[in-house]
Amino acid sequence: MQRMIINLKSLNVLFALSILFALFGAVAPATAQNKEADTFVMEQVELTEDHITGYLQIAPKLSEMFDRIDKAGGEPDKKLVGELEALAKVGGFQSFEELEIVVSNINFVMSGIDEETGTFTEPVEVLKAELKDTQADKSIQGEEKEQLVASIKESIAQTPKLKYPGNVDIVKKHMKALTALYQE
Predict the structure, then answer these.
(1) How many CB atoms lie within 10 A of CB 47?
(2) Element holding 33 (H helix, E strand)
(3) Tens digits of residue pLDDT in 123-141
């Protein structure tokens, strides 16, 4: 299986970011629910240099806020929401919603970049390889394996193709700094 930039520790950070964004969904959902298919579709945007540098500028402060965000659960107070909006503006974003969308796009691209070679593979193809490896893995048994396989299959069904190929180049340009964020 390809060794991706997004390792388990990074996935925990990405999961934390996902929770962060889900908590503040009333502020800005980065995904739209397709009611007919009951799936979620990520809003893809063309990333810019300003997006990446703005995110890198405010990411450490955003990380510091995780404890407060976690304690807020599904009920963030107006003060915390206001602080997140203000932080997004410091990074050059119009709103926390824009920040959320940009981070989702960055993470989406990073999930397809091979750590060793730096090559990009569509995230859905990475997931298909992960599914194949998981199905062949004899160390995972029973219900745990069934749940993992089902989860990967669901991810495959919901993972879109990359809409803006130029996003790969801009993320690669800042890969060292972005990777460092997820390893802290």
Answers:
(1) 22
(2) strand 31-34
(3) 999 999 999 999 999 999 9
CB 174 within 8 A of CB 106: no
**Mean pLDDT, the chain, integer:** 82
Residues 54 and 136 reside in one and the same domain? no
Element spanning 146, H or E? helix 142-158
User: Does 60 share its domain with 99?
Assistant: yes
Between CA 121 and CA 103 the distance in angstroms is 19
Tell me the average pLDDT across 72-97: 90
Range of the domain at 133: 123-160
Question: Is residue 43 within 8 Å of 104, Cβ to Cβ?
Answer: yes
- For residues 64 and 184, the answer to whether their CB atoms sit within 8 Å is no
- Shared-domain flag, residues 131 and 172: no
To which H or E segment does residue 139 belong?
none
Supply the pTM of this predicted model.
Answer: 0.77
